[in-house]
C-alpha cells in the first residue's frame, strides 16, 4: 500500500477544514496564545501545543506530516512547486523563534498568573476580518517561502510548533522509550538514492539507512522514503532506538 495515497488526502482535508472554518488561528496561532497569556487566560491553543508535545513522546514528528494544517497547505503548493527547500543551517532559525515566542508566553503567565480557562478566547470577540487574517496568515507565510526557497521551507526554517515535537522526540530517545520510528534494513538497500530524492525535508536518507534507523530532527515520518524504496529497506516500526543514546 502506498502511504501517500492515505496521508495526503488526510492532511489536505485537515488544512481545508481548519482554514475554511476559520479555526486555524484559535488552535495554532502563535499570536493569540501570547495575547491570552498577557491576560492570564489559558486558551485552546495552550492545550493544543501541550497535546502536540505529549503526542511527540510516542509519535515523534508524525503529526507534522499527517495532520498539521500547515503541511496540508504545503502539499497543495507542491502540486505547482516541485523544488525542495534545502537542508541548511537556516533550519536553526525556528529554534530562535521558538525561544523568543515561548519566553513571551511564560512571561505573560508569570506576570498575570493563571486566572481562568477560556477555550474560545480569540474567536468569540474577534471581528470576522481579523479571524480571516489570522487564519489565512499561515498561508500568507507558507506560500511565499515555498515560492522563494522551495516546498516545506516554512516547516524546515520557521515553524513554531516543530521544536515542541523535536524536544519530545529527544526526551523519548534519551530515555530509550518505544515509539513510532522509521527503521531500516541495510542489507536490502540497493543504494539507488530514491528515498533521498523523495524526502520532502531534503534529508540524506540513503546515508542513514546503514544506521538501522532514520534519525534526524527534520524527519516528519511522512513515509515518502518508504514508498520510494522498491527493495523494502525502510519501514515503520513501533520500537526503541536502534542505538541507545549516551
TrEMBL record:
PROSITE patterns: 4FE4S_FER_2
Transmembrane segments: 12-35, 41-59, 92-112, 132-150
Origin superkingdom: Bacteria
Matching InterPro entries: 4Fe4S_Fe-S-bd (IPR017896), Electron_Trans/Redox (IPR051684)
Domain 4Fe-4S ferredoxin-type: residue ranges: 180-209, 210-239
Record's keyword annotation contains Amino-acid biosynthesis: no
Keywords, sorted A to Z: 4Fe-4S, Electron transport, Iron, Iron-sulfur, Membrane, Metal-binding, Transmembrane, Transmembrane helix, Transport
PANTHER family named in the record: FERREDOXIN-TYPE PROTEIN NAPH
Name of protein: 4Fe-4S binding protein
Organism: Paenibacillus puldeungensis
